[in-house]
Amino acid sequence: NALIKELDSRVYLEIGIKDCANFSAISAPKKIGVDPSIGLKLRGLARAKRLFYKAQGTPLYYRDSSQVLYAMTSDEYFSSRFSECVDIVFIDGLHHFDQVLTDFINACNTLTRHGVILFHDCLPTNPIHASRIQKTKTWNGDVWKAIYWLVHQSIGITVFDFDEGCGLVKKPPQQLSFPSLSEIAQ
After folding, report:
1. Can you give the C-alpha Rg of the chain in angstroms?
2. Residues contacting residue 141 through CB under 8 Å, at least 6 positions apart
3. DSSP reduced 3-state for 170
4. Most exposed among 29, 34, 41, 111, judged by the fewest C-beta atoms under 10 Å?
5. Closest CA to 144 of 172, 115, 117, 166
6. Which pLDDT tens digit goes with each residue over 62-87?
7. pTM (2 decimals)?
């Protein structure tokens, strides 16, 4: 919220909203949330409504005057007609380095000129949490590999040592070219 205020941000996008705890606390004029698992634990009429929309091919889960939630993957969102220019992107979706890099590349293409990208889970506290496969409730995945790659590409990223590590990248001044993800994986 301090960053939103400092940058006078109008549109905030969060990839991986899970239970909306973080998303709900954000006070941007417009908020967009993307997560394929939104509403999976719903019961009764709310679950039926979600399943109805999904069967109709409508990824919209919820909308009001200041926020919209999409039940879709980040790849689906960025390639859809719903994608829009944003000031801040918070990446906390699938905790696999290749997906984090894909989200970063896609986010760079939707950022406004002075936009920023935030990452979560950059500094796992132990090797079990840093595993690509989730083995415990606390799981950072191999997001750290994406951060390592960005650092070695001389992309100006700052990582803060709190809440399992939070990274910040300002929109690069020029269009970036990235190798294919298969090349990165090697």
Report:
1. 16
2. 94, 95, 96, 97, 121, 130, 131, 132, 134
3. strand
4. 41
5. 166
6. 778 899 998 899 999 999 988 999 99
7. 0.86
